[in-house]
Amino acid sequence: MKFLFSILCTLLLLVANAQKNYLTESKQERDSRMEWWRDATFGMFIHWGAYAVPAGSYNGKEYGRIGEWIMHSANIPILEYEKFVKQFNPIQFNAKEWVAVAKKAGIKYIVITSKHHDGFCIWDSKVTNYDIMDASPFKRDILKELSDACKEAGIKMCFYHSIMDWHQPDAESKKDYTHQHSVNPNFAKYREEYLKPQLKELIEKYDPAVLWFDGEWIPEWTEEQGRDLYNYLRNLKPDLIINNRVGKGRSGMQGMNKYKDAAGDFGTPEQEILEGTSDSDWESCMTMNDTWGFKKNDNNWKSSETLIHNLIDIAAKGGNYLLNVGPTAEGLIPAPSVDRLKDMGYWLDINGEAIYATKSLKKYKEGNNVKYTVSNDGKYIYAIVTQKSDQPVVLKNIQITHGTKVHMLGVKKSIKHTHDNNSGTLTLEWPKKLPCDHAWVFKIEGTPKN
Ligand code: GLC
Fold first, then answer.
1. Mutate to test the pocket of ligand 1, among 292, 295, 320 (most ligand atoms within 8 A of CB)
2. Using CA atoms, how far apart are residues 11 and 7, in angstroms rounded to an integer?
3. What is the mean pLDDT of the chain?
4. pTM for this prediction
5. What domains does the chain contain, in order, with CATH numbers?
6. Which residue has the higher pLDDT, 116 or 175?
7. pLDDT band for position 182 (50/70/90)?
8. Using an 8 Å Cβ cutoff, are 242 and 283 in contact?
9. Which has fewest Cβ within 10 Å: 293, 296, 304, 396?
């Protein structure tokens, strides 16, 4: 009896611990899990941590292009860097205000750095004291406040989490005498007893919709560990979406996978946009100036027009745009970022129909100034024109549905148009008064020509 009982117990334990393999899910399962993300198209990246205190300068000298790397680029010892953490007291932080800025901009999801490479954690973590509650004077759970505000506003909350960690002794790759990084022999301890428990904690406490990994290039990390982590996390939260930096598949800054079946749900081009469409999901992450984390002297802001044109280009190629802000050590999103986000929101209020919940066409553009998207139901084609001219717009790629009207988004009266059966061209007149700046959308009932 005793023997049978112990066998039964073992069996029950096995069943309870059985890990499902999510790497082999069907296309259908995948499509339904990815649906909200594909439709969302526009997300906000937030790089925020103790690096906002030095804001790009250390001992009177400015370092590197990107502010969040200052610990590395200025070679700051751990104990010295911890002083910035002790000064990190962003009393002007107001989660509701940040989320309101995002909401007005037309942002559908926010990805914030729970932990960047410097290792400092901006939530109340029971796994470490190197967090906002124990190591900084601020003592407010930033991720909790933001998650609550996002929930209220209907914005999805997501976390960026660095695999590389410059603060954990078991994670850091040491440089050997040839200045090559050598593998940290204790890395498995960091992974199993620190990284994974923290991610579990993040999922259980804040229920993030996406986990966005980075720092996977360290020599300790392998595709196998990435696959294991992917499955571990999806077993905790089956509908979780995870970027391709969870494994080793990413091909540099271009960001798409270099081999088939690499772990992760989407490619991550960084500071660039794909040349064309792709069969895989992808998201371009980009800065508004030149840094991710706040740098006080970086004023190289892109214009609102450039940002709107990027969004159009990305949507037309079937990707998502993850646009970064780097808040200050006081807790404010820099005013130039807020201004640009306002402009984008204004444009999207009128034209969002052509961006969200759309698909891409094989011929996603015509000439240099027209990009196409298609409504998910396939009924409408949106011709997005990024340059105004005195001449009518001439399109060759669209077969308009006979007898139907053409509209410009934001304009009541329908658009005068002619279709030339011989040449197959559709000619669209501009309306007298344009509804916005930067780009204009003709909404056409029709089919693409191949
Ligand atoms: C790079 C940088 C990092 C930044 C990330 C955003 O990988 O290391 O600082 O967070 O890009 O994609």
1. 292
2. 6
3. 95
4. 0.95
5. 27-357 (3.20.20.80), 361-448 (2.60.40.1180)
6. 116
7. confident
8. no
9. 396
